[in-house]
Amino acid sequence: MVTSEIYNPEQWNNFFILIGTGSATLAGLVFVAMTINLKGVAKDATHRYRAINMLSGFTSVFVIGSLALMGGQTYHSLGIEWLTVSLFAAAINTNGYVQAFRLRGSLYALSLFRIVGGSLCYLGQIIGSLLLYLGSKAGIYISAIALIVNFYFLVSGSWLLIVGTLHGSE
Q: Binning pLDDT at 50, 70 and 90, where does residue 1 land?
């Protein structure tokens, strides 16, 4: 069967369980950390939009994992679901950086490495999901690797959010 050669759900279940539970846990921790210093997050555009980016990034990973674990998924359905979620998350991420620059937030906290790196991760997920939808076995691996690398940007961005709000409250 062609479908199982491109995407075999049984081989990917543990991966999607891992990323789904990990991202939900981390989103919860970021949310709690933000509420502890809500004034620091709310008063600076960079911190506000970084918070939105981190929460939407972790949420997108959770949604991708959840959709993939639903029964009856084919490579076509998973490809289109992953594409949709990744496009939405990439749009939120890009808007966050644009708004932080436009509103002149803590520009010291914005780096070209983070902007380009995180954007490339979303682009990798978009390209991989398109390839998956089109029937390329490489597509799911490209998307999965991009998603894993994006965890670096999400976790480190969460840390920068917490440290940045402390920096601004001194």
A: very low
